[in-house]
Design brief:
The protein starts with a helix and ends with a strand. It is α+β, with helices and mostly antiparallel strands. The strands form two sheets. Strands 1-6-5-4-7-9-8 form a seven-stranded antiparallel β-sheet, sandwiched between helices. The chain has helices spanning about 1-10, 60-65, 80-90, 150-155, 160-165, 175-180, 185-205, 220-225, and strands at about 40-45, 90-95, 100, 115-120, 130-135, 140-145, 165-175, 210-215, 235-244.
Length: about 240
């Protein structure tokens, strides 16, 4: 049964079966970023270059890349979080037709991912759920309070590291943004893009003496409900814990 589902997915998402997309029809592209209310609580992040420069041995960085599941109680600084967000979804240039140039590759420069952060320990930031506003390089408060543990940890199948890390990165896929250019094939590209972003997080975290563990095992319905999305047009696709 599972194999037939996989085969059908691959068949339906081939280039030959994608058909005409909205871009081919000259329709208006979706926005680069999900909207938010004007009176939202926003935290401006420090510029990414606020961190002190350091020499990096790239080969050593690659060799030391590993998944880290146990963390110290030491918090991340706001500058460190800013740096990790810049390395993973930082916008270098907004382009026409709903595209952007960022620090990670994306099919057609569509960048259909939004970054949510479940923060436990970041200096100067109250625990809670936030969304990264990539265009403004800022944090948007979604829901505050440590009581989020009661719903967030079960959404990740009670993996202890979600509770003990400094912050959990959660990547949300906005299907419309990728499907605008690629139709059904968008599902393939969004998964590939999520891998690009997470690998950048692994490597960037090593440069600030932090560890990362990617998470693909989560309760889709629960996590989508916490994020307030329908699980179809927008859905959680990947996550990763980060801590010292």
């Amino acid at each position: 049964m599972e194999q037939s589902i996989g085969r059908e997915y691959m068949k339906q998402s081939t280039c030959a079966n994608c058909g005409d997309c909205a871009r081919d029809k000259k329709l208006i592209p979706p926005p680069l970023q999900l909207p938010y209310a004007e009176d939202s609580s926003i935290i401006k992040l420090p510029e990414p270059d606020m961190l002190a420069d350091q020499e990096i041995n790239f080969l050593e960085l690659i060799e030391l890349r590993t998944s880290v599941r146990q963390y110290h109680e030491t918090p991340l600084t706001l500058a460190e979080l800013s740096y990790l967000l810049w390395c993973t979804q930082g916008v270098k240039m907004a382009m026409p037709q709903g595209t952007s140039i960022r620090n990670v590759p994306s099919a057609g420069a569509r960048h259909a991912l939004e970054t949510y952060l479940y923060i436990n320990r970041v200096d100067g930031v109250s625990p809670g759920l936030y969304r990264f506003l990539a265009l403004e390089h800022a944090l948007l408060l979604v829901q505050s309070g440590e009581e989020l543990n009661a719903v967030m940890v079960p959404a990740f199948k009670n993996q202890k590291m979600v509770k003990t890390c400094a912050v959990t990165f959660i990547w949300l896929a906005v299907l419309e943004r990728m499907a605008y250019a690629y139709g059904q094939r968008a599902y393939r590209y969004i998964h590939l893009d999520a891998g690009h972003v997470c690998q950048n997080l692994y490597l960037a975290a090593r440069t600030i003496n932090s560890g990362v563990c990617a998470i693909g095992a989560f309760d889709d319905e629960r996590l989508n409900a916490v994020l307030g999305v329908d699980g179809e047009s927008q859905f959680a696709i990947y996550a990763a814990t980060v801590g010292k």
